[in-house]
Design brief:
Strand order of the largest sheet: 1-2
Order of helices and strands: HHHHHHEEH
Distance between the termini: 35 Å
Shape: globular
Number of helices: 7
Number of domains: 1
Largest sheet: 2 strands, antiparallel
Length: 200
Protein backbone atom coordinates (compact mmCIF):
# COMPACT_ATOMS: atom_id res chain seq x y z
CA UNK A 1 0.00 0.00 0.00
CA UNK A 2 1.37 3.42 -0.97
CA UNK A 3 2.39 5.82 1.80
CA UNK A 4 1.35 9.44 2.18
CA UNK A 5 4.41 10.87 0.39
CA UNK A 6 4.09 8.47 -2.53
CA UNK A 7 0.42 9.39 -2.92
CA UNK A 8 1.29 13.09 -2.70
CA UNK A 9 3.78 12.67 -5.56
CA UNK A 10 1.00 11.18 -7.70
CA UNK A 11 -1.28 14.13 -6.92
CA UNK A 12 1.44 16.51 -8.15
CA UNK A 13 2.49 14.47 -11.19
CA UNK A 14 1.16 16.15 -14.36
CA UNK A 15 1.92 12.92 -16.22
CA UNK A 16 -0.73 11.07 -14.21
CA UNK A 17 -4.32 10.83 -15.32
CA UNK A 18 -6.50 13.44 -13.57
CA UNK A 19 -8.72 10.70 -12.12
CA UNK A 20 -5.66 9.04 -10.56
CA UNK A 21 -4.48 12.37 -9.13
CA UNK A 22 -7.89 12.95 -7.50
CA UNK A 23 -8.00 9.34 -6.26
CA UNK A 24 -4.50 9.71 -4.78
CA UNK A 25 -5.58 12.81 -2.86
CA UNK A 26 -8.54 10.85 -1.46
CA UNK A 27 -6.17 8.02 -0.51
CA UNK A 28 -3.98 10.51 1.40
CA UNK A 29 -6.94 10.86 3.78
CA UNK A 30 -6.56 7.22 4.74
CA UNK A 31 -3.19 8.23 6.17
CA UNK A 32 -4.10 11.61 7.69
CA UNK A 33 -7.59 13.04 8.16
CA UNK A 34 -7.94 15.32 11.21
CA UNK A 35 -11.74 15.66 10.92
CA UNK A 36 -12.27 12.10 9.74
CA UNK A 37 -12.20 11.05 6.09
CA UNK A 38 -15.46 12.54 4.82
CA UNK A 39 -15.32 15.81 6.78
CA UNK A 40 -11.66 16.39 5.88
CA UNK A 41 -12.46 15.78 2.21
CA UNK A 42 -15.38 18.22 2.37
CA UNK A 43 -13.13 20.80 4.06
CA UNK A 44 -10.32 20.46 1.49
CA UNK A 45 -12.74 20.69 -1.43
CA UNK A 46 -14.40 23.82 -0.01
CA UNK A 47 -11.08 25.53 0.69
CA UNK A 48 -9.54 24.62 -2.69
CA UNK A 49 -12.67 25.52 -4.65
CA UNK A 50 -13.93 22.28 -6.18
CA UNK A 51 -16.91 20.09 -5.37
CA UNK A 52 -16.60 16.87 -3.38
CA UNK A 53 -18.17 14.96 -6.28
CA UNK A 54 -16.21 16.80 -9.02
CA UNK A 55 -14.53 14.01 -11.00
CA UNK A 56 -12.29 16.32 -13.02
CA UNK A 57 -11.23 19.24 -10.83
CA UNK A 58 -8.59 21.73 -11.89
CA UNK A 59 -5.22 20.06 -11.14
CA UNK A 60 -3.98 23.28 -9.49
CA UNK A 61 -6.89 23.05 -7.04
CA UNK A 62 -6.00 19.44 -6.24
CA UNK A 63 -2.44 20.52 -5.47
CA UNK A 64 -3.71 23.41 -3.32
CA UNK A 65 -5.79 20.94 -1.29
CA UNK A 66 -2.78 18.64 -0.97
CA UNK A 67 -0.57 21.50 0.21
CA UNK A 68 -3.04 22.39 2.95
CA UNK A 69 -3.16 18.75 4.02
CA UNK A 70 0.64 18.46 3.99
CA UNK A 71 1.09 21.57 6.13
CA UNK A 72 -1.38 20.25 8.69
CA UNK A 73 0.30 16.84 8.68
CA UNK A 74 3.66 18.49 9.31
CA UNK A 75 2.20 20.33 12.33
CA UNK A 76 0.74 17.12 13.71
CA UNK A 77 3.88 15.02 13.13
CA UNK A 78 5.87 17.67 15.00
CA UNK A 79 3.46 17.38 17.92
CA UNK A 80 3.68 13.59 17.90
CA UNK A 81 7.46 13.74 17.91
CA UNK A 82 7.42 16.10 20.92
CA UNK A 83 4.84 13.89 22.63
CA UNK A 84 6.99 10.79 22.15
CA UNK A 85 10.05 12.55 23.54
CA UNK A 86 8.10 13.80 26.57
CA UNK A 87 6.78 10.31 27.35
CA UNK A 88 10.30 8.89 27.02
CA UNK A 89 11.57 11.43 29.58
CA UNK A 90 8.66 10.76 31.92
CA UNK A 91 9.25 7.01 31.81
CA UNK A 92 12.93 7.59 32.48
CA UNK A 93 11.96 9.68 35.51
CA UNK A 94 9.68 6.91 36.79
CA UNK A 95 6.30 8.27 35.63
CA UNK A 96 4.81 5.14 34.11
CA UNK A 97 1.12 5.94 34.47
CA UNK A 98 -0.10 8.04 31.52
CA UNK A 99 -2.43 11.02 32.04
CA UNK A 100 -5.71 11.92 30.36
CA UNK A 101 -3.95 13.60 27.41
CA UNK A 102 -2.01 10.39 26.85
CA UNK A 103 -5.22 8.34 26.91
CA UNK A 104 -6.77 10.66 24.31
CA UNK A 105 -3.59 10.66 22.24
CA UNK A 106 -3.56 6.88 21.90
CA UNK A 107 -6.94 7.09 20.13
CA UNK A 108 -5.68 9.66 17.63
CA UNK A 109 -2.17 8.42 16.84
CA UNK A 110 -1.27 9.29 13.27
CA UNK A 111 -3.68 12.21 13.15
CA UNK A 112 -6.89 10.45 12.17
CA UNK A 113 -9.86 12.13 13.81
CA UNK A 114 -7.90 14.41 16.15
CA UNK A 115 -10.63 17.02 15.67
CA UNK A 116 -13.37 14.56 14.70
CA UNK A 117 -16.42 16.01 12.95
CA UNK A 118 -19.29 13.53 12.99
CA UNK A 119 -21.28 15.52 10.44
CA UNK A 120 -19.02 15.71 7.37
CA UNK A 121 -20.61 19.02 6.33
CA UNK A 122 -19.98 20.74 9.68
CA UNK A 123 -16.32 21.46 10.34
CA UNK A 124 -14.03 24.43 10.99
CA UNK A 125 -13.46 26.69 7.99
CA UNK A 126 -9.95 27.84 8.99
CA UNK A 127 -6.87 26.17 7.48
CA UNK A 128 -6.25 22.70 8.87
CA UNK A 129 -2.78 23.61 10.15
CA UNK A 130 -4.19 26.53 12.15
CA UNK A 131 -6.91 24.35 13.64
CA UNK A 132 -4.32 21.78 14.73
CA UNK A 133 -2.05 24.46 16.20
CA UNK A 134 -4.94 25.72 18.33
CA UNK A 135 -5.76 22.19 19.43
CA UNK A 136 -2.14 21.45 20.34
CA UNK A 137 -1.87 24.71 22.30
CA UNK A 138 -4.99 23.72 24.24
CA UNK A 139 -3.53 20.28 25.01
CA UNK A 140 -0.43 21.96 26.44
CA UNK A 141 -2.20 24.35 28.84
CA UNK A 142 -4.66 24.09 31.70
CA UNK A 143 -8.14 22.81 30.75
CA UNK A 144 -10.66 25.49 29.83
CA UNK A 145 -14.38 25.97 29.28
CA UNK A 146 -14.65 26.51 25.53
CA UNK A 147 -13.85 24.92 22.19
CA UNK A 148 -10.09 25.19 21.60
CA UNK A 149 -10.61 25.61 17.85
CA UNK A 150 -13.25 28.33 17.54
CA UNK A 151 -13.56 29.59 21.12
CA UNK A 152 -17.30 28.90 21.31
CA UNK A 153 -18.78 27.84 24.63
CA UNK A 154 -21.79 26.10 23.06
CA UNK A 155 -20.76 22.55 23.91
CA UNK A 156 -23.22 19.70 24.05
CA UNK A 157 -22.86 16.01 24.74
CA UNK A 158 -23.55 13.83 21.75
CA UNK A 159 -24.03 10.07 21.78
CA UNK A 160 -23.65 7.55 18.98
CA UNK A 161 -20.64 9.18 17.32
CA UNK A 162 -19.03 7.25 14.48
CA UNK A 163 -15.72 7.47 16.35
CA UNK A 164 -13.93 6.34 19.49
CA UNK A 165 -14.99 7.53 22.02
CA UNK A 166 -18.55 7.15 20.77
CA UNK A 167 -19.83 10.00 22.92
CA UNK A 168 -18.45 13.29 24.09
CA UNK A 169 -18.57 17.08 24.03
CA UNK A 170 -19.23 18.45 20.56
CA UNK A 171 -18.87 22.12 19.67
CA UNK A 172 -22.19 23.57 18.55
CA UNK A 173 -20.40 26.06 16.28
CA UNK A 174 -17.52 24.34 14.45
CA UNK A 175 -18.70 20.74 14.96
CA UNK A 176 -15.55 19.13 16.38
CA UNK A 177 -15.56 16.48 19.08
CA UNK A 178 -13.66 18.47 21.70
CA UNK A 179 -10.92 16.38 23.33
CA UNK A 180 -11.92 15.83 26.94
CA UNK A 181 -8.45 16.70 28.32
CA UNK A 182 -8.78 20.32 27.10
CA UNK A 183 -12.00 20.90 29.07
CA UNK A 184 -12.28 21.53 32.79
CA UNK A 185 -14.40 19.15 34.89
CA UNK A 186 -17.01 21.91 35.15
CA UNK A 187 -17.15 22.36 31.37
CA UNK A 188 -17.52 18.60 30.88
CA UNK A 189 -20.30 18.47 33.48
CA UNK A 190 -22.07 21.41 31.85
CA UNK A 191 -21.86 19.77 28.42
CA UNK A 192 -23.27 16.52 29.83
CA UNK A 193 -26.18 18.35 31.46
CA UNK A 194 -26.87 20.60 28.49
CA UNK A 195 -27.07 17.94 25.79
CA UNK A 196 -27.36 20.74 23.26
CA UNK A 197 -26.70 18.38 20.38
CA UNK A 198 -28.87 15.34 20.00
CA UNK A 199 -28.05 12.36 17.78
CA UNK A 200 -29.50 12.70 14.28
Amino acid sequence: MAGFRSLARQVRDPGCDLALRRYSLRKCLEKFAPYGHRATWDHLCARAGFGPEDRSPDPARLVAALEELEEARSVWLGYESDFTERRRREKHDGLRRPGSVDDWHRLTWGGFGVAWCDDPRVHPSDPLAEVLRRLIEALEREPGASCPVCGADRLGWKYGLDHEPSSGPVCGDCGILVPRPVLSPQALAYARRGRLLMPA
